Amino acid sequence: MAEDRKPKDAPVAGGTKKAGILNRFDNPWLNWKFLTGAGILGVLFFLIFLGYQLWDTNLALSARAPLNLPPVGFTNWRGQEGVPEHPLGTENSGRDMLAMLIVGTPRTIIVGVIAATVGMLVGILLGFMAGFLGGLFDDVIRLAVDITITIPSLLVLIVIQSVLGRVDLVAMALLISLFTWATPTRYIRAQVLSMRESGYVQMARLSGVPVRDIMFKEIMPNLLPYLAASYIGNMAGAIVTAIGLEVLGFGPQRIPSLGVAIFFSVEAAALVRNMWWWWGFPTVILAIVFIALLLINLGLDEIANPRLRKAN
Amino acid sequence: MGGISLNYLVRRLLVFFLTLWVAATLIFIIPRLAPGDPISAMVARLSYQAGFVENSDQIIEGWKERFGLNDPVYVQYLRYMGGLLQGDLGYAMARFPSTVTELVGRALPWTIGLVGLATAIFFIVGNLCGALLAWYKTPKLVKVLIPMSMVFTSIPPLLAGLLLAYVFGFLIPLFPLNYSYGFGLQPEFTIEFIANVIHHGFLPAMAIVLVTFGYWALGMRGMMVTIEGEDYMILAQAKGLKPFYVLYRYMIRNAILPQMTALAVTIGTLVNGVVLVEVIFNYNGMGTLIFTAIREQDFGLIQGTSFILIMTSALAVLIIDLSYPLIDPRISLEGR
Fold first, then answer.
1. 3-state SS class at A90
2. Contact across the interface for B310 and A156, Cβ inside 8 Å
């Protein structure tokens, strides 16, 4: 019997192997947008890591370098030339731009990570509860979401921060997360409502699976790519808000993040003094971060939605 | 046109008024959660600057009495709400004789104009680009050019504003970098003045349009791709309808409603961006007003400006939400 089966099974085994290879190339996660975005962020993190190893990050503090030096190969309005000790130039309180970028970039990104994570956790909790419990609870959550989305977050945060004064980055991130929970909540609630009626969830219910398991073992896995896309979108949004607050002057001033660097440059009218390196480098780094996040977001969208994938 | 279901109307109005109430209440509560009170803080600031303020305790008490800060909180709250209802936002402390309402009244029209125009431009351009991206008749060249023009998408308007200000305001000084119209001009309805306003407003509006229209193009394209797979599209083509007619009546008309819904959701983000763009360009709207208020530490002005801007955004969202039946006749049939 066993010998009989072997030759029969063999071609099937070969077939699955072939399909396996095909599947590997057909894998939705092999999405060029997603991979490019992730790659850009990866390279950026690697460079920051290298920077921390190779460059003196204390130069990001004020009065550690000559003032207003241009990058190497350029001259400033006083005719000073850039020096290799400060390859990207310095600003008007004596901070080295390269050190400022190395220190500032991760500080800027971490705000987005904290705010988006808090927002996502709250969103998952409230979204599932609203979708499953329904009734009054659902109504209240929906109202709260609508109101939170309508209010421009920056304005409320300005009011809060003008009372609190300057706060550190973690506190700023937590304040921003007062507004990042609404979009995930709305999204998850809508998905839960539609999935609740789908066959497999009904089946699980009939089989007596506890609600918690239905939520996290049946519904959650289906939502993952969407949640990831929404997380990335939220992260970008939180970073934008943080930069906004920083540019208005609410950022931590001693160790600057990229937004604070731009605030200093705007305060000192760097734009019309032609000190482009001062606001330009932070702007370029931020632009790269945002483009990478957008690519990841679009990629995740296509991963989650085969119809968009087909369109390419 | 007409007939949104009553239920929807009531719910929308409820959200609108609740938003205003929540915003007003937040703005009332937040300063009271912080330790100390605004009068003491101000006197402390004065004494920090001057070294010493004579009889500071009596000054604090006197002002507290005058502003009613010694009353129970609910009395203060009711008085504050009553003031808001009458449009009374109090005085701008740092520019004493002017009231907040006055300053806001001067700044708000400029901001509304800027946001309104920018929104109209990016919404139309974005949706057209998106539709063209997905349309089967679009020339190849256009399909390559549109994505290339979207490189700025996702960058915050603030940063785009910085770049534009540097390139077109400083390196090649084509556009002015401050105020919404030239000095020495009187706001009046002449061609010269309007041209001047457009000249001043062009870069700030562009900063918003450049970074936003790509989103709408992408959203529209997604919607169009879905619609292209529908049966009625095959029927329309089989009937031999003209491609432009199909594009407009069958595709864009069907996809525009979700885009409007999306627009209502992004108004908040948009206002955030405009506030900062105004700061970069020194545009004399609400953003610059808030910025100066922050610098002067004029808390009343910050509160008032924020509240009015929140109210304006909520109103914009309400108007968009109530305009659905005008855009899509199917809406009026539903829910009846």
1. strand
2. yes
CA distance B24 to A279: 36
Distance CA(A48)–CA(A55), nearest Å, equals 10
Place of tokens 């549109």: B146
| CB-nearest partner of A154 from B19, B151, B272 | B272
Cβ-defined contact of A248 to B291 (cutoff 8 Å)? yes
Is the predicted ipTM greater than 0.95, yes or no?
Answer: no
Element (H, E) at A139: helix A135-150
**Is B23 within 8 Å of A243 when comparing Cβ atoms?**
no
**pLDDT in tens for each of the 336 residues of chain B?**
445 677 788 888 999 999 999 999 988 888 777 666 666 766 776 677 666 767 777 777 777 777 667 778 888 888 888 888 887 777 776 677 778 888 999 899 999 999 999 999 999 999 999 988 888 778 888 888 888 888 888 889 999 999 999 999 888 888 887 777 776 677 777 788 888 888 888 999 999 999 999 989 988 988 888 888 888 888 988 888 888 888 888 888 888 888 888 898 889 899 999 999 999 888 889 999 999 888 887 888 888 899 999 999 999 999 998 888 777 776 654 444
Written as one string, the DSSP assignment of A271-291 is TTTT-HHHHHHHHHHHHHHHH
Q: What is the DSSP letter of B51?
A: S
Neighbours of B261 (CB within 10 A): 12
Report d(CA A247, CA A198) in Å as an integer.
Answer: 48
Overall domain count for chain B: 1
Residues B84 and B27 sit within 8 Å (Cβ to Cβ): no
The answer to whether the Cβ–Cβ distance between A147 and B279 falls below 8 Å is no
Asked if A311 lies within 8 A of B134 by C-beta distance, the reply is yes
Chain A residues in contact with B226 by the CB 8 A cut-off are: 307
CA-nearest residue to B311 within chain A is: A151
**Nearest-by-Cβ selection for A151 from B158, B279, B310:** B310
Which residues in chain A have their CB less than 8 angstroms from residue B166's CB? 271, 276, 280
The matching CATH number, chosen from 3.60.15.10, 1.20.140.10, 1.10.3720.10, 1.10.530.10, for A32-57+98-308 is 1.10.3720.10
**Interface contacts A/B by beta carbons within 8 Å:** 146
For residue B255, what are the domain limits?
A: 106-295
Annotate B314-331 with DSSP letters as a single string. Answer: HHHHHHHHHTHHHH-THH
Q: Tell me chain B's radius of gyration from C-alpha atoms.
A: 25
User: CB contact, 8 Å: B268 with chain A?
Assistant: yes
Are residues B310 and A241, on separate chains, in Cβ contact within 8 Å?
no
CATH of the domain at B145: 1.10.3720.10
Measure the CA angle with vertex A166, ends B69 and B90; round to 5°: 35
